[in-house]
Amino acid sequence: MTDSKFPKLLDYEALKKQFGEDGPTAPHSSAPTAYHAQREHILSNDDDALSFDAPPAQAEKKPGLTGSRLRSYAFAVLTRKEYAKAELIEKLSLYAESRDEVLKLVDELARKNYQSDQRVADTLLSSQKRKGKGPNQIKMKLKSKKLDTALIADELKETDWVQQAYELKVKKYGTEVSKDPKIKAKQIRFLMYRGFEMDAIIKAISRKPNED
């Protein structure tokens, strides 16, 4: 055998000086090595990080508005924008000390007409019609604000939805009445997405220019 193929023999005398008379601690020894100490430290820190008993981050404390301060805040909110009753309750509750106080305050504001679901519904109807939305989309919007459709039931009935759908179709596809089933299907899907009902859609895409 040559020395180039095999490592040199261990220098036990040097090992004794480095680790002591008994040599390095065996893995099964109860005495902790530097490796074991480091491992225990890491595991201990990981246990702390993963512990379900650790206190959660402190939530942001609410201002806790009451009395005149809550009332002033409510007026400030309504000055900037009209809110549905349900929306206003939720917004004020984020900053109020008591939800019961919020409910009483909003009822009072509604009685005195500072807050009005009717005004919100009327404004929403006008805004949605300007955006080319049909009755189904408008009803969904009302529902999202927890507004009763009955507030604008008459306006919804009186609106010429065929005309509304026709104007939107012309703006998107022009005045030509297509006989191509694919194009007609595309126009129908577009108007349905906008919230128009099928009866109004069929009349709108079939209407010729200058036709009543």
Automatic annotation (TrEMBL):
InterPro entries (UniProt xref): RecX_HTH_2nd, RecX_HTH_3rd, Regulatory_RecX, WH-like_DNA-bd_sf
Key words of the record: Cytoplasm
Domain of life: Bacteria
The RecX third three-helical domain, residue ranges: 159-205
GO terms (BP aspect): regulation of DNA repair
GO annotation, cellular component aspect: cytoplasm
Disordered, as annotated region: 45-65
Localization of this protein: Cytoplasm
Residue ranges occupied by any RecX second three-helical domain in the UniProt entry: 116-154
Matching PANTHER family: REGULATORY PROTEIN RECX FAMILY PROTEIN
Family: Belongs to the RecX family.
Role this protein plays: Modulates RecA activity.
Name this polypeptide is given: Regulatory protein RecX
Underlying gene: recX
